[in-house]
Amino acid sequence: xxxxxxxxxxxxLFSAGGPYAAIGREGLAGTLLAIDEINxxxxxxxxxxxxxxDPQGVTENYxxxxxxxxxxxxxxxxxxxxTSWSRKxxxxxxxxxxxxxxxxxxxEGFEAHEQVIYLGACPNQHxxxxxxxxxxxxxADGYLVGSNYIWGWETSRIARDVMEAAGGRVAGERxxxxxxxxxxxxxxxxxxKRPAFILNxxxxxxSYAFLAAYHALGQxxxxxxxxxxxxxxxNFAEPELAQLGEAATGQYAVSPYFQSLQTTENRQFLEAxxxxxxxxxxxxAFFAQAYAAVHLLAxxxxxxxxxxxxxxxxxxxRRSITAPFGPVEIDLSNNHAVLTPRIARAxxxxxxxxxDRGLAIRPDPYLAYAARFxxxxxxxxxVK
Amino acid sequence: MSAPVQIASFDRKTALIxxxxxxxxxxxxxxxxxxxVRCEGSWxxxxxxxxxxADLLFYDADMGHDGQFPWAPGTAPMPAIALIGSEAxxxxxxxxxxxxxxxxxxxxxxxGVFTALVIASEAFARRSAMRDELAGLRSRLEQRxxxxxATACLMLQGNLPAEEAxxxxxxxxxxxxxxxxxxxxxxxxxxxxxxxxHRS
Lengths: 384, 200
What we know:
The complex is a heterodimer. Chain A folds into two domains: 7-119 and 262-337, Response regulator (Rossmann fold), CATH 3.40.50; 127-233, Response regulator (Rossmann fold, 3-Layer(aba) Sandwich). Chain A is built from eleven helices and 15 strands. Chain A has helices at 21-41, 59-73, 84-96, 127-138, 150-165, 184-193, 205-220, 238-244, 264-276, 285-304, 309-315; strands spanning 7-13, 47-53, 77-80, 100-103, 116-118, 142-147, 172-176, 197-201, 231-233, 252-255, 320-323, 326-331, 336-337, 342-347, 350-355. Chain A has a seven-stranded mixed sheet, sandwiched between helices. Chain B has a five-stranded parallel sheet with strand order 2-1-3-4-5, sandwiched between helices. Chain B is α/β, with parallel strands linked by helices. Chain B has two domains: 14-137, Rossmann fold; 143-192, Arc Repressor Mutant, subunit A, CATH 1.10.10. The chains are: A alpha/beta, B alpha/beta. The interface between A and B is medium-sized, with 32 and 20 residues.
């Protein structure tokens, strides 16, 4: 099968409005930058044509808009979705229309759909390495706070298992509705319980409100300073940090990508960002992973001469592309990316990477091998 | 990353898939590989050597029959998952009689195996615990007579009221680290064999 013409339709499905707009805009910008870059350099004998829809953070909009993209453009690939709910909403459409979703966000795991390529970290690449770093330094009695949906529930459940296995105890566990900013009672409970750390799986405004309130507590009582009782996040992005500034300073995050990553790949990537989209603010993993997704997709189309979903997926076997966070490949046994987790501390000017073992970790979305030691992907070069 | 994590894990377990060669077997095999489970397909019989030692079983409810299994219906010695294509009541009745701990509907795509394994393992653990408890209760019921007889013997021997005789039986059982039933059996056996000794 060959491409019918030299234009390949690509669906783009991110929320630039709604409760997680800051993250949605990152995915959108990363996707569009990669498309612009690919089209401008003419490195392939086709151009990508973006067909953009904005679900505004409303879960029910995703399936309808994805169907609309496929029906109107014939796109066989969609880059998009931030929450797991939205991803699960469009899976029936992907199956029915033989379409591939390129999902660029970290998530809670326990899924490996053949028609989804997962570019973000799954738990053995985010919360497990983060706790592995934090427990020996701060203690195992953590407090769990999250938005009331699957990301928070499942990430916290995994954290609970890790903490208890390390002899710790869960000091408290609270969930707040998506978008809710009424978190004073939670901060008060933390003040009373004095946990060793707080694992924050809140998203959007709830997370910003929590970090601001916890910062105020730390100012009033130094025993809640981040150097004593830090807040940990697995999805805290640069634009959010820029917005929070001082209020988030000292807190910890884990991600395969931080803007401050000192590598040649990242320098070149940031130059491309400046060249193609000079108005871009700070960039995050959500941006970089969406960007990498489009490059992988284009490489797959180029290698096979078709945009057929299954054929492009097959072409990813043993194919590695240079992503902003280093060489990236997809493990086709579960369609997830092999990624190198990095741990960073927030500062007023961005994330400062404090731990980077340079070890690429194979995705284990079902935590099937979590009881064993982490298994670095031995054939990937250590990137420093 | 090095912390042991207590999450339902099937890493290094073995599964048998009793189903004719079919895409459903490939789909299950692919999902099992993601979970670290080694598996083997087999049809129309279960391999006699491998079947009793496998950790997990998937069996076809569409074309399956009792004769395929080396154990009685309902007594599979591992979690058993029915693979259901036809939802005809007769076939469902057979799948249930065989002892489905969980089921998967065909066709099988990219999900469902992990859920079926978690639910089947839990159901199997419950089934095993209940079977063991039932066996224990049944055996105690059968030994009710010997406890009565031993109590009567102790009453006569020590000229004791019933409560005291029973209390002594319990005490001796505890000292000997035996169940009351086993201690009663021993006392009655000794009496019958003529080893009557003075009990103070």
